[in-house]
Queue: 2 jobs
Job 1
Amino acid sequence: MDFTEIAPGVRWKPACNDGRPFSYTNTYILSSDIGPLLVEPVHFDELEAWVELIRQEQIAAIVLTHHHVDHTYGVHPLQSATGCEVWGPTKGKALRQQYTLSRVLVEGDDLGGWRVLETPGHDLEHIVLYNGGTLVAGDVRKVGTGWPHDLIKSIQRLISINPETVLFAHGLPALHHSFAVWGKLLMEERS
Protein backbone atom coordinates (compact mmCIF):
# COMPACT_ATOMS: atom_id res chain seq x y z
CA MET A 1 0.00 0.00 0.00
CA ASP A 2 1.71 3.19 -1.20
CA PHE A 3 1.31 6.20 1.10
CA THR A 4 3.49 9.32 0.91
CA GLU A 5 4.37 11.54 3.87
CA ILE A 6 2.81 14.83 2.74
CA ALA A 7 2.77 16.92 5.93
CA PRO A 8 3.97 16.32 9.48
CA GLY A 9 2.03 13.34 10.80
CA VAL A 10 0.05 12.90 7.56
CA ARG A 11 0.45 10.22 4.90
CA TRP A 12 -1.44 10.40 1.59
CA LYS A 13 -2.67 7.83 -0.93
CA PRO A 14 -3.73 9.75 -4.01
CA ALA A 15 -6.96 8.99 -5.80
CA CYS A 16 -6.51 6.42 -8.56
CA ASN A 17 -8.32 8.31 -11.35
CA ASP A 18 -7.88 5.32 -13.61
CA GLY A 19 -11.50 4.54 -14.46
CA ARG A 20 -12.17 2.17 -11.57
CA PRO A 21 -15.48 2.98 -9.89
CA PHE A 22 -15.24 4.99 -6.68
CA SER A 23 -11.44 5.30 -6.72
CA TYR A 24 -11.37 9.06 -7.14
CA THR A 25 -10.99 10.10 -3.49
CA ASN A 26 -7.69 10.76 -1.74
CA THR A 27 -7.10 8.78 1.45
CA TYR A 28 -5.05 9.99 4.41
CA ILE A 29 -3.54 8.40 7.51
CA LEU A 30 -3.32 10.94 10.33
CA SER A 31 -1.05 10.47 13.32
CA SER A 32 -2.90 11.24 16.53
CA ASP A 33 -2.55 10.77 20.26
CA ILE A 34 -5.23 8.05 20.14
CA GLY A 35 -3.63 6.10 17.28
CA PRO A 36 -3.62 6.41 13.51
CA LEU A 37 -6.82 7.65 11.87
CA LEU A 38 -7.68 6.42 8.36
CA VAL A 39 -9.63 9.07 6.44
CA GLU A 40 -11.99 7.77 3.73
CA PRO A 41 -10.48 4.55 2.35
CA VAL A 42 -12.58 3.94 -0.76
CA HIS A 43 -10.36 1.81 -3.01
CA PHE A 44 -12.61 -1.23 -2.67
CA ASP A 45 -10.81 -3.45 -5.18
CA GLU A 46 -7.80 -3.46 -2.85
CA LEU A 47 -9.76 -4.83 0.12
CA GLU A 48 -7.14 -7.35 1.28
CA ALA A 49 -4.40 -4.70 1.29
CA TRP A 50 -6.64 -2.29 3.27
CA VAL A 51 -7.50 -4.99 5.82
CA GLU A 52 -3.80 -5.72 6.26
CA LEU A 53 -3.02 -1.99 6.59
CA ILE A 54 -5.70 -1.50 9.27
CA ARG A 55 -4.34 -4.41 11.25
CA GLN A 56 -0.63 -3.60 10.81
CA GLU A 57 -1.00 0.11 11.54
CA GLN A 58 -3.45 -0.58 14.39
CA ILE A 59 -5.83 2.02 12.98
CA ALA A 60 -7.90 3.60 15.77
CA ALA A 61 -10.80 4.49 13.46
CA ILE A 62 -11.93 5.13 9.92
CA VAL A 63 -12.98 8.79 9.77
CA LEU A 64 -15.46 10.21 7.25
CA THR A 65 -15.89 13.88 6.35
CA HIS A 66 -19.39 13.19 4.99
CA HIS A 67 -21.43 10.28 3.67
CA HIS A 68 -21.42 10.59 -0.12
CA VAL A 69 -20.75 7.24 -1.79
CA ASP A 70 -17.46 8.35 -3.35
CA HIS A 71 -16.14 8.78 0.23
CA THR A 72 -17.71 5.70 1.79
CA TYR A 73 -17.70 3.00 -0.88
CA GLY A 74 -15.12 0.77 0.83
CA VAL A 75 -16.14 1.42 4.43
CA HIS A 76 -18.68 -1.37 4.99
CA PRO A 77 -16.42 -4.18 3.75
CA LEU A 78 -13.52 -2.83 5.84
CA GLN A 79 -15.64 -2.48 8.96
CA SER A 80 -17.02 -6.01 8.42
CA ALA A 81 -13.57 -7.53 7.86
CA THR A 82 -11.70 -5.76 10.67
CA GLY A 83 -14.25 -4.54 13.22
CA CYS A 84 -12.63 -1.11 12.92
CA GLU A 85 -14.70 1.74 14.32
CA VAL A 86 -16.16 4.27 11.88
CA TRP A 87 -16.45 7.89 12.98
CA GLY A 88 -18.14 10.70 11.10
CA PRO A 89 -20.89 13.29 11.17
CA THR A 90 -24.49 12.21 11.59
CA LYS A 91 -25.66 10.29 8.54
CA GLY A 92 -28.60 12.56 7.72
CA LYS A 93 -30.03 11.33 4.42
CA ALA A 94 -27.35 8.64 4.02
CA LEU A 95 -29.25 6.14 6.17
CA ARG A 96 -29.08 3.44 3.50
CA GLN A 97 -25.29 3.24 3.87
CA GLN A 98 -24.51 -0.19 5.31
CA TYR A 99 -21.68 0.68 7.70
CA THR A 100 -22.41 1.60 11.30
CA LEU A 101 -21.15 4.79 12.90
CA SER A 102 -19.38 3.94 16.15
CA ARG A 103 -19.07 7.62 17.00
CA VAL A 104 -20.91 10.68 15.68
CA LEU A 105 -18.46 13.56 15.34
CA VAL A 106 -19.57 17.09 16.20
CA GLU A 107 -18.04 20.54 16.38
CA GLY A 108 -15.16 20.70 18.83
CA ASP A 109 -14.51 16.96 19.23
CA ASP A 110 -10.81 16.27 19.77
CA LEU A 111 -9.47 13.24 17.92
CA GLY A 112 -6.06 13.02 19.55
CA GLY A 113 -4.92 16.45 18.39
CA TRP A 114 -7.24 16.80 15.38
CA ARG A 115 -10.19 19.10 16.06
CA VAL A 116 -13.52 18.53 14.34
CA LEU A 117 -15.08 21.57 12.65
CA GLU A 118 -18.57 21.42 11.17
CA THR A 119 -18.50 22.82 7.63
CA PRO A 120 -21.90 22.42 5.99
CA GLY A 121 -22.29 23.34 2.35
CA HIS A 122 -21.22 20.53 0.06
CA ASP A 123 -23.31 18.34 2.35
CA LEU A 124 -25.33 19.47 5.35
CA GLU A 125 -23.44 17.00 7.56
CA HIS A 126 -19.89 17.80 6.38
CA ILE A 127 -16.93 18.08 8.75
CA VAL A 128 -13.22 18.85 8.44
CA LEU A 129 -10.29 17.98 10.72
CA TYR A 130 -7.75 20.60 11.79
CA ASN A 131 -4.59 20.30 13.88
CA GLY A 132 -3.40 23.91 13.91
CA GLY A 133 -1.47 23.78 10.64
CA THR A 134 -3.06 21.10 8.47
CA LEU A 135 -6.69 20.91 7.41
CA VAL A 136 -8.26 17.71 6.08
CA ALA A 137 -10.92 19.45 4.01
CA GLY A 138 -13.05 16.71 2.46
CA ASP A 139 -15.21 18.34 -0.21
CA VAL A 140 -15.28 21.90 1.13
CA ARG A 141 -14.26 23.11 -2.31
CA LYS A 142 -16.57 20.85 -4.32
CA VAL A 143 -18.27 22.99 -6.95
CA GLY A 144 -21.77 22.34 -8.26
CA THR A 145 -23.36 20.46 -5.38
CA GLY A 146 -24.82 21.28 -2.01
CA TRP A 147 -25.97 24.47 -0.36
CA PRO A 148 -23.97 27.49 -1.66
CA HIS A 149 -24.88 29.88 1.16
CA ASP A 150 -23.71 27.39 3.82
CA LEU A 151 -20.61 26.55 1.80
CA ILE A 152 -19.60 30.22 1.56
CA LYS A 153 -19.95 30.56 5.34
CA SER A 154 -17.81 27.45 5.83
CA ILE A 155 -15.15 28.72 3.44
CA GLN A 156 -15.11 32.10 5.22
CA ARG A 157 -14.62 30.31 8.51
CA LEU A 158 -11.69 28.32 7.14
CA ILE A 159 -10.18 31.49 5.67
CA SER A 160 -10.19 32.96 9.18
CA ILE A 161 -8.13 30.06 10.58
CA ASN A 162 -5.89 30.04 7.46
CA PRO A 163 -4.28 26.58 7.62
CA GLU A 164 -0.88 26.23 6.01
CA THR A 165 -1.64 22.90 4.35
CA VAL A 166 -5.04 21.89 2.97
CA LEU A 167 -5.70 18.26 2.08
CA PHE A 168 -8.65 17.88 -0.25
CA ALA A 169 -10.58 14.70 -0.95
CA HIS A 170 -10.29 15.31 -4.69
CA GLY A 171 -7.36 16.79 -6.56
CA LEU A 172 -3.98 17.82 -5.30
CA PRO A 173 -3.31 19.08 -1.80
CA ALA A 174 -2.46 22.75 -1.25
CA LEU A 175 0.88 22.60 0.53
CA HIS A 176 2.44 25.63 2.21
CA HIS A 177 -0.14 27.81 0.53
CA SER A 178 -2.37 30.46 1.97
CA PHE A 179 -5.90 29.15 2.35
CA ALA A 180 -7.00 32.77 2.62
CA VAL A 181 -5.92 33.38 -0.99
CA TRP A 182 -7.36 30.08 -2.23
CA GLY A 183 -10.64 30.59 -0.36
CA LYS A 184 -11.15 34.07 -1.78
CA LEU A 185 -10.59 32.76 -5.31
CA LEU A 186 -13.17 30.02 -4.72
CA MET A 187 -15.71 32.50 -3.40
CA GLU A 188 -15.18 34.72 -6.48
CA GLU A 189 -15.83 31.64 -8.65
CA ARG A 190 -19.19 31.14 -6.91
CA SER A 191 -20.44 34.73 -7.28
Note: Residues 126 and 140 are 8 Å apart (CA to CA).
Job 2
Amino acid sequence: MPEDRELHSEIGASCANRWLHCPGSVRLLRGLPPRPDTEYTILGTAAHALAETCLKEGSDPADHIGEFIEVKGREVPVTEDMAEAVSVYVDKVASDRAEFGGELLVEQSFDLSWLRPGLFGRNDACLLPANWGGVIRVYDYKNGAQPVEEEENPQLMYYALGAVAGMDNLWPEAVECTIVQPNCPWESRAVRTWRIDGESLRRWAVEVLAPGADAAMAPDAPCVCGPWCATCDASGVCKARADEAVALFKASPLEKRVSLPPLDTLTPAQLGRLSSFFTSARFAAWVKALAAAELEALQSGVAIPGRKLVETETLGNRRWTDIEDVKRALGPILGAELFKSEIRSPAQVEKLLSSRKVAKAEQAGLISPLVTRDMTHKVVVQDAGVSGKATCAFAPVPLGK
Protein backbone atom coordinates (compact mmCIF):
# COMPACT_ATOMS: atom_id res chain seq x y z
CA MET A 1 0.00 0.00 0.00
CA PRO A 2 1.25 3.55 -0.65
CA GLU A 3 2.95 5.40 2.16
CA ASP A 4 4.82 8.39 0.77
CA ARG A 5 2.95 11.65 1.09
CA GLU A 6 4.30 14.74 -0.61
CA LEU A 7 6.47 17.04 1.44
CA HIS A 8 4.40 19.85 2.83
CA SER A 9 4.91 23.47 1.89
CA GLU A 10 5.76 25.75 4.79
CA ILE A 11 2.73 27.75 3.65
CA GLY A 12 0.69 24.67 2.85
CA ALA A 13 -2.99 23.90 3.31
CA SER A 14 -2.85 21.79 6.47
CA CYS A 15 -1.21 24.64 8.39
CA ALA A 16 -2.98 27.54 6.64
CA ASN A 17 -5.08 28.38 9.68
CA ARG A 18 -1.86 28.91 11.63
CA TRP A 19 0.21 30.94 9.20
CA LEU A 20 -2.69 33.10 8.00
CA HIS A 21 -3.23 34.15 11.64
CA CYS A 22 0.42 34.08 12.72
CA PRO A 23 2.67 34.84 9.75
CA GLY A 24 5.77 34.89 11.98
CA SER A 25 5.37 31.20 12.79
CA VAL A 26 6.76 30.27 9.36
CA ARG A 27 10.05 32.02 10.11
CA LEU A 28 10.30 30.46 13.59
CA LEU A 29 9.73 26.94 12.31
CA ARG A 30 12.61 27.04 9.83
CA GLY A 31 15.46 24.93 11.11
CA LEU A 32 13.48 23.38 13.97
CA PRO A 33 13.26 19.58 14.07
CA PRO A 34 9.84 18.22 13.10
CA ARG A 35 7.46 17.15 15.83
CA PRO A 36 7.97 13.43 16.63
CA ASP A 37 5.35 11.08 15.28
CA THR A 38 2.78 9.81 17.77
CA GLU A 39 0.51 6.79 17.70
CA TYR A 40 -2.24 9.11 16.46
CA THR A 41 -0.23 10.51 13.55
CA ILE A 42 1.02 7.05 12.56
CA LEU A 43 -2.54 5.68 12.58
CA GLY A 44 -3.77 8.72 10.63
CA THR A 45 -1.14 8.20 7.94
CA ALA A 46 -2.03 4.51 7.69
CA ALA A 47 -5.75 5.30 7.45
CA HIS A 48 -5.09 7.78 4.64
CA ALA A 49 -3.03 5.15 2.81
CA LEU A 50 -5.84 2.61 3.17
CA ALA A 51 -8.36 5.14 1.85
CA GLU A 52 -6.12 5.93 -1.12
CA THR A 53 -5.74 2.25 -1.98
CA CYS A 54 -9.47 1.59 -1.78
CA LEU A 55 -10.43 4.57 -3.93
CA LYS A 56 -7.82 3.78 -6.57
CA GLU A 57 -8.46 0.03 -6.68
CA GLY A 58 -12.20 0.13 -6.03
CA SER A 59 -11.73 -2.24 -3.09
CA ASP A 60 -13.57 -2.30 0.21
CA PRO A 61 -11.68 -1.30 3.39
CA ALA A 62 -13.05 -4.40 5.12
CA ASP A 63 -11.27 -6.56 2.52
CA HIS A 64 -7.93 -5.32 3.87
CA ILE A 65 -8.49 -6.24 7.53
CA GLY A 66 -5.45 -8.19 8.72
CA GLU A 67 -3.10 -6.61 6.17
CA PHE A 68 -0.28 -4.25 7.16
CA ILE A 69 0.60 -0.76 5.99
CA GLU A 70 4.18 0.43 6.29
CA VAL A 71 4.46 3.89 7.83
CA LYS A 72 7.98 5.21 8.42
CA GLY A 73 9.42 1.78 9.03
CA ARG A 74 6.52 0.56 11.14
CA GLU A 75 4.02 -2.13 10.15
CA VAL A 76 0.56 -0.83 11.04
CA PRO A 77 -2.21 -3.45 10.96
CA VAL A 78 -5.51 -2.71 9.26
CA THR A 79 -7.96 -3.34 12.07
CA GLU A 80 -11.72 -3.52 12.00
CA ASP A 81 -11.83 -0.10 13.66
CA MET A 82 -9.67 1.44 10.93
CA ALA A 83 -11.60 -0.25 8.13
CA GLU A 84 -14.94 0.84 9.55
CA ALA A 85 -13.76 4.45 9.84
CA VAL A 86 -12.25 4.58 6.35
CA SER A 87 -15.43 3.02 4.93
CA VAL A 88 -17.37 6.15 5.88
CA TYR A 89 -15.01 8.20 3.70
CA VAL A 90 -14.82 5.75 0.81
CA ASP A 91 -18.60 5.30 0.76
CA LYS A 92 -19.19 9.07 0.70
CA VAL A 93 -16.85 9.60 -2.24
CA ALA A 94 -18.25 6.60 -4.10
CA SER A 95 -21.88 7.63 -3.57
CA ASP A 96 -21.20 11.18 -4.79
CA ARG A 97 -19.41 9.83 -7.84
CA ALA A 98 -22.35 7.55 -8.61
CA GLU A 99 -24.81 10.44 -8.20
CA PHE A 100 -22.94 13.28 -9.91
CA GLY A 101 -20.46 11.57 -12.23
CA GLY A 102 -17.28 13.32 -13.26
CA GLU A 103 -13.58 12.49 -12.90
CA LEU A 104 -12.28 11.29 -9.53
CA LEU A 105 -8.74 12.35 -8.63
CA VAL A 106 -7.12 10.66 -5.61
CA GLU A 107 -4.06 12.08 -3.82
CA GLN A 108 -3.64 14.54 -6.67
CA SER A 109 -0.79 17.04 -6.35
CA PHE A 110 -1.47 20.65 -7.28
CA ASP A 111 0.53 23.83 -7.73
CA LEU A 112 -0.78 27.31 -6.96
CA SER A 113 2.39 29.16 -7.94
CA TRP A 114 0.26 31.18 -10.36
CA LEU A 115 -1.08 32.80 -7.19
CA ARG A 116 2.11 32.87 -5.09
CA PRO A 117 5.33 30.78 -5.10
CA GLY A 118 5.35 28.15 -2.38
CA LEU A 119 1.62 27.45 -2.46
CA PHE A 120 1.27 23.78 -3.37
CA GLY A 121 -0.08 20.59 -1.89
CA ARG A 122 -2.06 17.42 -2.42
CA ASN A 123 -5.80 16.73 -2.20
CA ASP A 124 -7.08 13.58 -0.49
CA ALA A 125 -9.72 13.30 -3.21
CA CYS A 126 -11.68 15.57 -5.52
CA LEU A 127 -14.44 15.02 -8.03
CA LEU A 128 -14.21 17.20 -11.12
CA PRO A 129 -17.55 17.83 -12.87
CA ALA A 130 -18.36 16.26 -16.20
CA ASN A 131 -19.44 19.69 -17.45
CA TRP A 132 -16.67 22.24 -17.14
CA GLY A 133 -17.72 25.14 -14.99
CA GLY A 134 -20.01 22.95 -12.87
CA VAL A 135 -19.57 22.01 -9.20
CA ILE A 136 -16.25 20.65 -7.94
CA ARG A 137 -16.36 18.37 -4.89
CA VAL A 138 -13.37 18.20 -2.56
CA TYR A 139 -12.97 15.61 0.22
CA ASP A 140 -10.73 15.79 3.28
CA TYR A 141 -10.40 12.73 5.54
CA LYS A 142 -9.75 13.43 9.23
CA ASN A 143 -8.84 10.44 11.37
CA GLY A 144 -8.79 12.35 14.66
CA ALA A 145 -11.64 12.79 17.11
CA GLN A 146 -11.39 16.55 17.68
CA PRO A 147 -14.19 18.09 15.58
CA VAL A 148 -12.99 20.36 12.77
CA GLU A 149 -15.17 23.26 11.63
CA GLU A 150 -15.93 23.03 7.92
CA GLU A 151 -17.37 26.51 7.23
CA GLU A 152 -14.82 29.02 5.93
CA ASN A 153 -12.05 26.57 6.76
CA PRO A 154 -8.80 27.88 5.17
CA GLN A 155 -7.47 24.36 4.62
CA LEU A 156 -10.58 23.33 2.68
CA MET A 157 -10.59 26.53 0.61
CA TYR A 158 -6.89 25.98 -0.18
CA TYR A 159 -7.74 22.43 -1.32
CA ALA A 160 -10.63 23.82 -3.36
CA LEU A 161 -8.18 26.07 -5.19
CA GLY A 162 -6.02 23.01 -5.83
CA ALA A 163 -9.00 21.28 -7.45
CA VAL A 164 -9.66 24.38 -9.57
CA ALA A 165 -6.05 24.15 -10.75
CA GLY A 166 -6.91 20.67 -12.07
CA MET A 167 -9.44 22.31 -14.40
CA ASP A 168 -6.84 24.64 -15.92
CA ASN A 169 -8.03 27.38 -13.52
CA LEU A 170 -11.46 27.50 -15.12
CA TRP A 171 -13.54 28.82 -12.25
CA PRO A 172 -16.43 26.55 -11.33
CA GLU A 173 -19.96 27.45 -10.42
CA ALA A 174 -19.21 26.33 -6.86
CA VAL A 175 -17.04 24.03 -4.77
CA GLU A 176 -18.49 21.65 -2.18
CA CYS A 177 -15.94 20.98 0.54
CA THR A 178 -16.58 17.84 2.60
CA ILE A 179 -14.87 16.81 5.82
CA VAL A 180 -15.24 13.11 6.61
CA GLN A 181 -14.41 12.54 10.27
CA PRO A 182 -15.73 9.12 11.30
CA ASN A 183 -14.04 9.16 14.72
CA CYS A 184 -15.77 12.40 15.72
CA PRO A 185 -17.63 11.89 19.03
CA TRP A 186 -20.90 13.02 17.44
CA GLU A 187 -22.00 10.53 14.78
CA SER A 188 -24.20 13.15 13.10
CA ARG A 189 -21.05 15.19 12.41
CA ALA A 190 -19.09 12.38 10.77
CA VAL A 191 -19.72 13.82 7.29
CA ARG A 192 -20.01 17.59 6.92
CA THR A 193 -20.23 19.59 3.68
CA TRP A 194 -19.87 23.30 3.09
CA ARG A 195 -20.44 25.05 -0.25
CA ILE A 196 -18.70 28.16 -1.56
CA ASP A 197 -19.47 29.78 -4.91
CA GLY A 198 -16.67 30.11 -7.44
CA GLU A 199 -16.46 33.90 -7.36
CA SER A 200 -16.19 34.04 -3.56
CA LEU A 201 -13.43 31.43 -3.69
CA ARG A 202 -11.56 33.46 -6.31
CA ARG A 203 -11.80 36.62 -4.19
CA TRP A 204 -10.59 34.74 -1.11
CA ALA A 205 -7.58 33.50 -3.08
CA VAL A 206 -6.64 36.99 -4.28
CA GLU A 207 -7.56 39.03 -1.21
CA VAL A 208 -6.74 36.65 1.67
CA LEU A 209 -4.53 33.73 0.68
CA ALA A 210 -2.10 35.60 -1.58
CA PRO A 211 -1.44 38.55 0.81
CA GLY A 212 -1.30 36.05 3.67
CA ALA A 213 1.49 34.18 1.87
CA ASP A 214 3.33 37.48 1.28
CA ALA A 215 3.08 38.34 4.97
CA ALA A 216 4.33 34.89 6.03
CA MET A 217 7.38 35.23 3.78
CA ALA A 218 8.35 38.64 5.19
CA PRO A 219 11.54 38.53 7.31
CA ASP A 220 9.93 40.62 10.05
CA ALA A 221 6.58 38.79 10.05
CA PRO A 222 4.89 39.20 13.46
CA CYS A 223 3.87 36.35 15.73
CA VAL A 224 0.28 36.39 16.95
CA CYS A 225 -0.97 34.13 19.75
CA GLY A 226 -4.25 32.28 19.48
CA PRO A 227 -5.86 28.81 19.32
CA TRP A 228 -3.57 27.92 16.40
CA CYS A 229 -0.60 27.89 18.82
CA ALA A 230 -1.74 24.46 20.01
CA THR A 231 -0.51 22.86 16.78
CA CYS A 232 2.62 25.01 16.33
CA ASP A 233 5.99 23.33 16.89
CA ALA A 234 7.61 26.73 17.46
CA SER A 235 5.74 27.47 20.69
CA GLY A 236 8.85 26.73 22.74
CA VAL A 237 10.92 29.42 20.98
CA CYS A 238 8.15 31.97 20.39
CA LYS A 239 8.62 35.24 22.31
CA ALA A 240 4.97 36.21 21.80
CA ARG A 241 3.92 32.92 23.37
CA ALA A 242 6.34 33.43 26.26
CA ASP A 243 5.15 37.01 26.82
CA GLU A 244 1.56 35.76 26.87
CA ALA A 245 2.44 33.12 29.46
CA VAL A 246 4.23 35.69 31.64
CA ALA A 247 1.24 38.05 31.40
CA LEU A 248 -1.10 35.26 32.49
CA PHE A 249 1.21 34.39 35.35
CA LYS A 250 1.34 37.99 36.53
CA ALA A 251 -2.44 38.06 36.61
CA SER A 252 -2.48 34.98 38.85
CA PRO A 253 -2.60 34.93 42.69
CA LEU A 254 1.10 33.98 42.69
CA GLU A 255 2.27 37.22 41.12
CA LYS A 256 3.01 38.95 44.44
CA ARG A 257 5.20 36.05 45.56
CA VAL A 258 6.81 34.81 42.33
CA SER A 259 7.57 36.43 39.00
CA LEU A 260 8.70 34.85 35.75
CA PRO A 261 11.43 36.59 33.77
CA PRO A 262 11.08 37.14 30.01
CA LEU A 263 12.76 34.26 28.18
CA ASP A 264 15.08 36.50 26.20
CA THR A 265 16.73 37.66 29.46
CA LEU A 266 17.68 34.15 30.63
CA THR A 267 21.13 32.59 30.41
CA PRO A 268 21.43 29.05 29.01
CA ALA A 269 21.87 27.69 32.55
CA GLN A 270 18.71 29.50 33.72
CA LEU A 271 16.79 28.21 30.73
CA GLY A 272 17.81 24.67 31.61
CA ARG A 273 16.87 25.00 35.28
CA LEU A 274 13.46 26.52 34.57
CA SER A 275 12.71 24.01 31.83
CA SER A 276 13.64 21.06 34.03
CA PHE A 277 11.39 22.44 36.79
CA PHE A 278 8.30 23.08 34.68
CA THR A 279 8.65 19.75 32.86
CA SER A 280 9.41 17.76 36.02
CA ALA A 281 7.13 15.01 37.29
CA ARG A 282 6.59 16.89 40.56
CA PHE A 283 5.37 20.05 38.81
CA ALA A 284 3.22 17.98 36.42
CA ALA A 285 1.67 16.26 39.43
CA TRP A 286 0.81 19.64 40.97
CA VAL A 287 -0.78 20.81 37.71
CA LYS A 288 -2.75 17.57 37.52
CA ALA A 289 -3.94 18.06 41.10
CA LEU A 290 -4.89 21.66 40.28
CA ALA A 291 -7.01 20.47 37.33
CA ALA A 292 -8.65 17.79 39.51
CA ALA A 293 -9.51 20.37 42.19
CA GLU A 294 -11.01 22.66 39.55
CA LEU A 295 -13.09 19.82 38.11
CA GLU A 296 -14.32 18.84 41.57
CA ALA A 297 -15.28 22.44 42.36
CA LEU A 298 -17.24 22.87 39.13
CA GLN A 299 -19.00 19.54 39.59
CA SER A 300 -19.98 20.67 43.11
CA GLY A 301 -21.65 23.76 41.69
CA VAL A 302 -18.88 26.23 42.54
CA ALA A 303 -18.64 28.94 39.86
CA ILE A 304 -15.15 29.55 38.48
CA PRO A 305 -14.95 32.70 36.32
CA GLY A 306 -14.18 31.95 32.71
CA ARG A 307 -14.43 28.16 33.09
CA LYS A 308 -17.23 25.68 32.45
CA LEU A 309 -17.96 21.96 32.32
CA VAL A 310 -18.51 20.23 29.00
CA GLU A 311 -19.85 16.68 28.75
CA THR A 312 -18.77 14.48 25.86
CA GLU A 313 -19.81 11.00 24.82
CA THR A 314 -18.00 8.76 22.38
CA LEU A 315 -19.50 5.68 20.80
CA GLY A 316 -17.22 2.68 20.63
CA ASN A 317 -17.18 0.18 17.78
CA ARG A 318 -20.07 -2.23 17.40
CA ARG A 319 -19.72 -5.81 18.52
CA TRP A 320 -22.11 -8.74 18.49
CA THR A 321 -24.21 -9.06 21.65
CA ASP A 322 -24.75 -12.82 21.33
CA ILE A 323 -23.03 -14.96 18.67
CA GLU A 324 -25.79 -17.58 18.69
CA ASP A 325 -28.41 -14.91 17.93
CA VAL A 326 -26.24 -13.72 15.02
CA LYS A 327 -26.00 -17.25 13.61
CA ARG A 328 -29.78 -17.72 13.80
CA ALA A 329 -30.60 -14.35 12.22
CA LEU A 330 -27.93 -14.13 9.53
CA GLY A 331 -26.82 -17.73 8.96
CA PRO A 332 -29.74 -18.55 6.63
CA ILE A 333 -28.86 -15.56 4.46
CA LEU A 334 -25.07 -15.69 4.40
CA GLY A 335 -24.27 -19.34 5.19
CA ALA A 336 -20.56 -20.10 5.44
CA GLU A 337 -19.69 -16.56 4.34
CA LEU A 338 -20.75 -15.35 7.79
CA PHE A 339 -17.46 -16.76 9.12
CA LYS A 340 -13.78 -16.35 8.42
CA SER A 341 -11.59 -17.97 11.08
CA GLU A 342 -14.21 -16.51 13.40
CA ILE A 343 -17.52 -14.80 12.85
CA ARG A 344 -17.26 -11.70 10.70
CA SER A 345 -17.58 -8.23 12.21
CA PRO A 346 -20.73 -6.08 11.89
CA ALA A 347 -19.03 -3.88 9.26
CA GLN A 348 -17.97 -6.90 7.20
CA VAL A 349 -21.45 -8.42 7.44
CA GLU A 350 -22.99 -5.18 6.15
CA LYS A 351 -20.76 -5.42 3.08
CA LEU A 352 -21.80 -9.02 2.51
CA LEU A 353 -25.48 -8.12 2.83
CA SER A 354 -24.98 -5.29 0.33
CA SER A 355 -23.41 -7.74 -2.10
CA ARG A 356 -26.56 -9.88 -1.71
CA LYS A 357 -28.64 -6.81 -2.66
CA VAL A 358 -30.16 -6.55 0.82
CA ALA A 359 -31.53 -3.00 1.21
CA LYS A 360 -29.93 -0.67 3.78
CA ALA A 361 -33.13 -0.44 5.81
CA GLU A 362 -33.42 -4.22 5.94
CA GLN A 363 -29.74 -4.49 6.91
CA ALA A 364 -30.29 -2.12 9.81
CA GLY A 365 -33.31 -4.13 10.94
CA LEU A 366 -31.28 -7.34 10.90
CA ILE A 367 -28.08 -6.04 12.48
CA SER A 368 -29.20 -3.40 15.01
CA PRO A 369 -30.84 -5.86 17.46
CA LEU A 370 -27.69 -8.00 17.39
CA VAL A 371 -25.00 -5.43 18.20
CA THR A 372 -23.97 -3.45 21.21
CA ARG A 373 -21.71 -0.46 21.53
CA ASP A 374 -19.76 0.88 24.47
CA MET A 375 -20.22 4.53 25.37
CA THR A 376 -17.30 6.51 26.76
CA HIS A 377 -18.49 9.39 28.93
CA LYS A 378 -16.37 12.09 30.46
CA VAL A 379 -16.63 15.61 31.80
CA VAL A 380 -13.91 18.09 30.94
CA VAL A 381 -13.23 21.73 31.75
CA GLN A 382 -13.02 24.34 29.01
CA ASP A 383 -12.72 28.09 28.80
CA ALA A 384 -16.21 29.56 29.03
CA GLY A 385 -17.52 31.90 26.37
CA VAL A 386 -14.89 30.97 23.78
CA SER A 387 -16.22 29.47 20.59
CA GLY A 388 -12.83 28.33 19.34
CA LYS A 389 -13.52 29.68 15.86
CA ALA A 390 -10.53 31.66 14.69
CA THR A 391 -10.64 34.88 12.74
CA CYS A 392 -8.15 35.55 10.02
CA ALA A 393 -5.43 38.19 10.41
CA PHE A 394 -6.51 39.41 6.99
CA ALA A 395 -10.18 40.40 6.74
CA PRO A 396 -11.84 37.59 4.80
CA VAL A 397 -14.11 38.31 1.87
CA PRO A 398 -17.78 37.75 2.81
CA LEU A 399 -18.67 34.41 1.32
CA GLY A 400 -21.79 33.54 -0.59
CA LYS A 401 -22.70 37.18 -1.23
Note: Residues 310-383 form one domain.
